[in-house]
Structure formats: structure tokens, C-alpha cells
Design brief:
Length: about 425
């Protein structure tokens, strides 16, 4: 039944996250990709580039509409908005961005790509980022760069690019390990302080750059990966800042499970957190042992069986929402019973977005960062010979970043760090 609805266009899995939008934080479901170029951005050329590149991504040319008691994503033929950066960033879905769920803004040598997380995560957004940059750089420098790895306006879709996993196509399996992990310490007071403060300037981040060769050498010598080592270093940094009686500290590590459900090329956001549990007594462990513990928990929780079970639970949740007759009923249900509300909250989170190969464009690009809603969230991007980390907070308190940098200093990792910057994530405006 779900499969027929999906093929007919009636079942839109990307629309259900819209019901979970929090009125007090309408920006929590948006993503912002920041790309720093070697030269100042030409806004007119960028506008042409974006609206040329979007021809390859019709699934990003959408707007939200109300229809038959639900939100639907309908085609939007208006141009993608390309604007000078302002604070706050214009809301996605608003008239200021032509109703789109994606927009672009720029300032100096930096381009910001804004998108609703309901239709894609960072992994799905990056091909769009590359397509826009390719069109922009070719036009700006009047040259033909090698298009290898770039989706051009007339490129065919990849096999399965529009797919979403259907329960009837997945095997019957049982979850591996603990499917209901206990919650560790959650810094609720920080969130309460942020939500009570109408000034969002405290909702910010630091940009950290690290040499890839140095970090990878450290990663290999400590039985880890970039994500597991950053998770372990964050534990060493954060745990001493929390109340001593809090014996369990957890890290949510983002897991992209597209391969596990046979949708390797889908643009849709198929990710979930893996909950890494650290006891306070682990603080005395060397990083190598913490790396092994982290990697072991990730290996168990990321088993395909768990991703298959997660997919079936997601669709079951969608079916529950479908039983409700109005948008208002759906929103009320999702705000109290939703997977985001009832899911395990972690002390901090780490997300390894991955390595982006810009090919011939690399010579014109200085850095790439991912900006998202979250507190004590570290997003990791890699490009060329560098790692680019964003350290996110929702309150402006330097005790967290200082603790993290002190641990980096203790283990001998070098880095450069920016000043504290406001996230300026776009809110989402519902019709």
C-alpha cells in the first residue's frame, strides 16, 4: 500500500518532518552549508549559476502547500532566491525566497546554502552545492572546468536517486544490541536559557581547521576514525563540566544508512544517531581505549539490521500521522509523541559529513563548513588536505570550547580557530 502511494506521489516521506517544527525554534530543521572562496562573490553571476544548476534538481524546486488536511510538497517554478547575507536569514518557505525550501545568500568571499532538513541532509545537499559552484566558477572565470563528478543541468538522475526504502522490499530482521539505550546527562539548563532569551546572538559556532595528515595520523594511531576520535576527545572535554553525580555521558554520532536499505544514491535524508555511552569512570582511559570503545559501539549499532528496523519504524510513524484528519491534529501529535520528542537525547553530538571532492574547482575554494541547530554539536567536513569542524553552541559561554581546545592541546593536535559567530540559520515558515 505504501509503495503504491509512493509511486503515485501521494506518499511524500519528506513532508512529515514539517509537522515537528517547534514554534519556539523554527530554525531547528534547517541546514546551512558555508563555502569560502578565494575571491569576493559576484552576486549577479551566482544568481545565474544557481538558477541554471537547479534544473538538475527538480526535487529541490518545491514549496509547501496545504491539501486535504496535510502538508504537501508541490513544484515551485519561481527562481531560487540569491540574496546578500542579512540577519536574520530570510525564512525558507517565505515570499522573500519565493516560497522555496532552499535559498542562497552571500557576503564577501563566502556563499551560504540554506535548505530545509525535511527534504535533505548535508549528504543530499552537497551535490547541489557542487553544481552551483561549478556553474558559478565557469561563468566567473569564463572557462570550462572538468565536469567530472558534477551534476550538470541536463544530467540524468543516478539509479535510485529518487528512491525511499519500502517495508515490503526489506527483509524481516531483529534489531542488534540495545534498541532502547538509556539517556545520559542532557544539558537541559542550557536549552532553557537559550529558549528564554529572545536575543539569538548566543546561538553560534566556532570554525576550526585542522591538517588532514596530522589528524589522520592521530586517528590511525588511536584505533579510530575522525568521528570516533572527535567523539572521544569531546567526552574528555565535556564530562568534567557536568555535575559529578551524572555518571553516564552519551554522544550521538550521526549514521547515514542509505546503503543499508539499498538506497545508496537517494537524495533523501536517511540518517539516525548512534548513541555512544561513556561512564564517568572512563575519564582516566587513554584516547586509544576510548576510540576502541566508541568504534565498537558504532559497529554494533550501525548494523544493517538496525537500519532496516529503523526504516520500518519511520514508516509506521508516518502511517500514524496519516490517521489524523487535520494539519493541526498532526502537529499536536508530532509535538508530543513524535520521534524527535520521544527519542533518546544525547549530551553532545558528532556528525562526520564526509570528504567533498571538488575536482578542478578546488583551487578556487578555501573552506567548507556545515552549520546546523544543536548544542555541543561538532560537524566535520573534509576537503583537500584539511578538516573543517564547526563547534556549535546555543549559549555564548566559552567554557565548552576552551575545554575542547585544552584537550586538543593535551594530545598534541594543532588547529586554527575563528571567533564566535552567530549561526543565522534560516527559519522555516509554514503556510
Amino acid at each position: 500500500m505504501i509503495k503504491e502511494r509512493f509511486l503515485s506521489g501521494d506518499y511524500q516521506p519528506d513532508s512529515y518532518a514539517l509537522y515537528e517544527l517547534r514554534p519556539y525554534m523554527p530554525y531547528n530543521t534547517s541546514v546551512r552549508i558555508m563555502v569560502e572562496l578565494t575571491e569576493e562573490v559576484d552576486g549577479d553571476i551566482l544568481d545565474v549559476a544557481a538558477n541554471t544548476a537547479i534544473k538538475r534538481y527538480p526535487y529541490f524546486s518545491v514549496q509547501i502547500e496545504r491539501k486535504d488536511g496535510k502538508f504537501v510538497l508541490a513544484h515551485n517554478s519561481r527562481p531560487i532566491a540569491v540574496l546578500k547575507t542579512q540577519t536574520p536569514t530570510p525564512a525558507l518557505g517565505s515570499e522573500e525566497v519565493n516560497g522555496h525550501l532552499t535559498s542562497i545568500d552571500y557576503a564577501g568571499n563566502t556563499i551560504y546554502f540554506n535548505m530545509s532538513h525535511s527534504i535533505a541532509g548535508a549528504a543530499g545537499i552537497l551535490p547541489w552545492v557542487k553544481s552551483v559552484l561549478y556553474q558559478y566558477l565557469c561563468k566567473k572565470y569564463d572557462m570550462d572546468l572538468n565536469p567530472a563528478g558534477i551534476n550538470l543541468p541536463d544530467s540524468d538522475f543516478l539509479p535510485g536517486e529518487l528512491d525511499f526504502p519500502m517495508p515490503e522490499d526489506l527483509p524481516d530482521v531483529e534489531p542488534m544490541g540495545n534498541s532502547n539505550p538509556p539517556m545520559g546527562y542532557f544539558p537541559a539548563e542550557d536549552y532553557a536559557a537559550a529558549f528564554q532569551n529572545p536575543d539569538r546572538s548566543g546561538d553560534g559556532y566556532y570554525c576550526i581547521q585542522m591538517k588532514q595528515s596530522e589528524l589522520m595520523q592521530y586517528v590511525r594511531s588511536n584505533d579510530g576514525s575522525p568521528a570516533t576520535i572527535i567523539a572521544a576527545l569531546m567526552f574528555k572535554a565535556m564530562a568534567p563540566l557536568f555535575p559529578a553525580e551524572e555518571s553516564l555521558i552519551t554522544c550521538g554520532v550521526a549514521c547515514n544508512f542509505r546503503d543499508s536499505v539499498n538506497c545508496p544514491n537517494t537524495y533523501r535524508d536517511l540518517s539516525r544517531p548512534l548513541h555512544i555511552q561513556y561512564k564517568r569512570s572512563y575519564l582516566d582511559f587513554p584516547v586509544e581505549k576510548l576510540g576502541t570503545i566508541t568504534r565498537g559501539m558504532i559497529m554494533l549499532q550501525s548494523m544493517p539490521e538496525n537500519s532496516i528496523c529503523e526504516t520500518k519504524e519511520i514508516i509506521k510513524y508516518h502511517e500514524q500521522i496519516d490517521t489524523l484528519g487535520s494539519i493541526e491534529e498532526k502537529q499536536k501529535f508530532c509535538l508530543t509523541e513524535g520521534r524527535f520528542t520521544k527519542g533518546c537525547k544525547d549530551t553532545y553530538n558528532v556528525s562526520y559529513v564526509g570528504t567533498t571532492d571538488f575536482g578542478d574547482m578546488q583551487q578556487y575554494i578555501k573552506a567548507i563548513y556545515t552549520i546546523a541547530f544543536g548544542h555541543l554539536l561538532v560537524e566535520i567536513n573534509s576537503m583537500g588536505d584539511m578538516f573543517f569542524l564547526t563547534f556549535h553552541q546555543i549559549i555564548d559561554d566559552d567554557k565548552y570550547i576552551n575545554a575542547f581546545l585544552n584537550v586538543m592541546d593535551e594530545v598534541g593536535l594543532s588547529y586554527t580557530i575563528s571567533e564566535y559567530r552567530q549561526k543565522n540559520i534560516a527559519a522555516l515558515q509554514l503556510p
